[in-house]
């Protein structure tokens, strides 16, 4: 989800750089905590601090992405503004999925694990893909390779989440 690349801007303001750093750290925290959550589906009581870290990381990721975008919005080309609006919509949907994960965990009714895995899995795939795509862009990869990295990230993520979902269902 780290869709705001510092390499894409010639002039960097301290607020923009700080927002990018906190956005990235938040994304890493969210991703790591989400991975731990999915690895501990049978230890619900031990998930509480990881769920808090996951939620805080997700919220920090979105808030500081917004700060980074807002800090230089007027200097962005229309195409970049449109791309960032799209990323912002994805970020809002990720927060909705994070909320769904929390609700599933909290209710712990029959089938909660499957819903939990689906919600957390979606955010993990989005985070991984965002970081991989931004890295490819920052490294100067051609557009076709950036698209291939994104597609590979989604495919690998769906396979991994499917494996966790089968384990949760068993």
Overall SS class: mainly alpha
Tell me the strand percentage band: under 5%
Main β sheet profile: none
Q: Give the number of helices.
A: 5
Total domains = 1
How large, in whole angstroms, is the Cα Rg?
17 Å
Runs in which pLDDT lies below 50 for 5 or more consecutive residues are: 4-10
Helix content: over 70%
Bulk shape: globular
User: How many individual β-strands?
Assistant: 0
Which series of helices and strands comes N to C?
Answer: HHHHH
Averaging pLDDT over every residue, what do you get?
Answer: 88
How far apart the termini lie comes to 31 Å
Condensed summary:
This protein is mostly helical. Helix content is 78%, strand content 0%. The relative contact order is 0.15.
Describe the structure.
78% of the residues lie in helices and 0% in strands. It is built from 5 helices and no strands. With 170 residues, it is mainly alpha-helical. The chain has one domain (6-169). Helix 1 (14-39) runs antiparallel to helix 4 and helix 3 (78-107) runs antiparallel to helix 4.
Characteristic key phrases:
170 residues, mainly alpha, 5 helices
Task: Describe the SSE topology.
Elements: H1 14-39, H2 48-70, H3 78-107, H4 112-138, H5 143-169
Helix pairs in contact: 1-2, 1-4, 2-3, 3-4, 4-5
